[in-house]
Write a sequence for this structure.
């Protein structure tokens, strides 16, 4: 749907057939989808494929004209800069306004103060989104009526708005599954399995199953969204009417999250493999550990964005310890390290096991059993000790052999 709308917007000067000449209007898009489901990446990829200038704006920074904050015209100025100060190229660009659901109407109650960052922004965007000639100040930082202006025609600029629209499924649920009275009448369905679901100490598989069910229910309702649902959510009808195409993205599955960890050119695992290679250390993470990271991010509901924070937490201590050690050649991460049951493991040159044999050996060992010879757990508090012969930082790194003999260290 996104490709169709964009092709209609960019191929107007292509070869014409024997049809009556008409002016083809653009079709702006509204993208609904949970956080971390790839809405922004989708728009970035689209702009690269069609070689169109793209600007990504945050709706939460915009305010109504005359108030502190960014005016909506600043979006067009950013697109002008992104186009290399070429007005013609600017008028064929793409504008993506993220977090559009955050500027919904604050409520039906009449307030003394105006909603300048919510409904006021929607009103300010109407003229720009529909298509007209807009006067854009050349110096948007200073609001001076004597400033010089650029005239930019937004008729052929494709506007795409995206947002998580948290709670929209309940609005759609009230419309689709309204309860009725009488024998045999269908009962109103529940939009979410557990409205008060929080991350607890329950089994990770149970949390993943609940999150998966919630994601499927949300995706089902988002696919059935109509403009009336967005109006009931808090968007004004005039604004929603200027986005004739409403599409939704599905939440990422466990397989998608595992692929994101390893497959892209700049994937998280490839970045860590590169960082550790600077210290001549190999990085090995098991397939089960990758799945455990994906399950954790999935249960938290953070999507692809949660993968980085989980991986950083697991490997944080190792990044501080490894540069101080010269006899470590591999960093090994298994599911127990991801769950926090045991730190990641360092394989030293004295080890008698390889990565493959270590993975098999750990399957038969409990967390209380001793590790194979030459394999040590990363514990930053054990590796870092105070010393008078330090490098000026007040800390000195110990070796694995010294760490395994704390009594001798204290005696020294």
């Amino acid at each position: 749907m996104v490709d169709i709308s964009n092709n209609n917007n960019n191929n107007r000067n292509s070869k014409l057939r024997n049809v009556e000449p008409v002016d083809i209007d653009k079709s702006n898009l509204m993208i609904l989808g949970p956080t971390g489901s790839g809405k922004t990446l989708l728009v970035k990829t689209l702009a690269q494929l069609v070689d169109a200038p793209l600007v990504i704006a945050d709706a939460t920074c915009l305010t109504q004209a005359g108030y502190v904050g960014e005016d909506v015209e600043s979006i067009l100025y950013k697109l002008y800069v992104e186009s290399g100060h070429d007005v013609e190229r600017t008028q064929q660009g793409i504008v993506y306004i993220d977090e559009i659901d955050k500027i919904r109407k604050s409520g039906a109650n009449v307030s003394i103060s105006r909603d300048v960052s919510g409904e006021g922004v929607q009103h300010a965007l109407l003229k720009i989104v529909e298509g007209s000639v807009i006067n854009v100040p050349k110096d948007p930082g200073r609001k001076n009526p004597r400033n010089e202006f650029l005239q930019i025609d937004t008729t052929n600029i494709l506007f795409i708005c995206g947002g998580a629209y948290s709670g929209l499924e309940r609005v759609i649920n009230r419309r689709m599954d309204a309860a009725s009275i009488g024998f045999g009448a269908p009962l109103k369905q529940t939009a979410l399995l557990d409205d008060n679901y929080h991350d607890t100490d329950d089994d990770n598989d149970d949390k993943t199953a609940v999150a998966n069910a919630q994601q499927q229910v949300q995706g089902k309702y988002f696919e059935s969204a109509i403009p009336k649902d967005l109006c009931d959510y808090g968007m004004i009808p005039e604004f929603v009417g200027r986005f004739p195409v409403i599409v939704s993205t599905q939440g990422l599955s466990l397989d998608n999250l595992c692929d994101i960890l390893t497959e892209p050119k700049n994937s998280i695992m490839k970045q860590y493999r590169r960082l550790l290679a600077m210290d001549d250390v190999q990085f090995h993470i098991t397939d089960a550990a990758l799945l455990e990271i994906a399950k954790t991010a999935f249960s938290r509901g953070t999507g692809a964005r949660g993968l980085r924070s989980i991986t950083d937490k697991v490997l944080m201590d190792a990044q501080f310890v490894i540069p101080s050690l010269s006899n470590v050649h591999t960093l090994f991460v298994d599911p127990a390290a991801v769950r926090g049951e045991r730190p990641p493991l360092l394989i030293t040159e004295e080890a008698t096991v390889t990565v493959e044999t270590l993975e098999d050996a750990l399957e038969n060992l409990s967390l209380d059993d001793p590790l194979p010879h030459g394999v040590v757990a990363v514990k930053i508090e054990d590796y870092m000790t105070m010393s008078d012969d330090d490098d000026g930082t007040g800390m000195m790194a110990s070796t694995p052999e010294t760490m395994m003999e704390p009594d001798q260290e204290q005696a020294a």
The CA atoms of residues 12 and 21 lie 11 Å apart. The mean pLDDT is 79.
